[in-house]
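Task 17 of the worksheet. Students: predict the tertiary structure of the chain below and write it out as structure tokens. Keep your answer in the requested format; marks are given for formatting as well as content.
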Amino acid sequence: MYLIGQLAKRCEVSSDTLRFYEKNGLLVPSGRSDSGYRLYSEDDLSRIRFILRAKAVGLSLEEIRELLDIQLEACQHSCAEVKAITQAKLDAVDSKIAELKRIRRALKKVNDACCGHADDNASHCSILGALGEEDSVDAVRSASGCCRGHSHS
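Model answer:
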């Protein structure tokens, strides 16, 4: 059996992290010592390692909780249930990547439209102009030149 500090050290996390997992229902101490200290077993060590690996692939605490619940009664669940959780996360990641690519394209376009000259004051800056437009998305799309007609560097 491990005390919380010993388990934390074995898992390379803080004791506060283990308390957080306990508070959020991901970990339950296997017992208490006579003096009331939390005690953890090898199974708890495995559980923490599972949680850490699941976090490393981007799963949320709720998704991890679902997987842990399935793992506890694995014979009563299917691989399809497990895969549905990871597929939903994968779909969310793909959606986020697409959104970030869209943001990057728009930001690059508005950034490229600005000359960036240090000797020009910002009153003619195309970035500020594009972002100040009521429909800044269209302004970003049409941003083509900057700062008193300077060419791009």
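Marker's comment: The radius of gyration is 26 Å. The CA atoms of residues 70 and 78 lie 9 Å apart.
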